[in-house]
Fold this protein.
Amino acid sequence: MSGKTVADLALEVRSKNAGPFWVTMELFMRDAAGYAVVADPGFLDEPVIARLYGVAADTIQIFRLPELNVVKISFPRPVVQGSLHDRDIHAGQHHVPLALLPLPDRGP
């Protein structure tokens, strides 16, 4: 691994509610080169997100938007928003594992 993380290539990595049952995360990359690294299905795919967040890979949706250098990821919340066991009601901290994901050695 290169020692760098997804956050090193991004302008912003954020997460938010997508209703009471879903979380959406967005990777706004600085440039096309950074986008090419994180948008590569060989680097960031459903099994990687499943491992990071403990959700089923077949429930994850990944949208790659090359014209904006953005990758958007949505998956079901582990618990319903506002329920007794919800520790992040706004899903504002869900992005941290993704931001800290190590880049492959071939990254810029």
Q: What stands out?
A: The chain has one domain: 6-99. The radius of gyration is 14 Å.
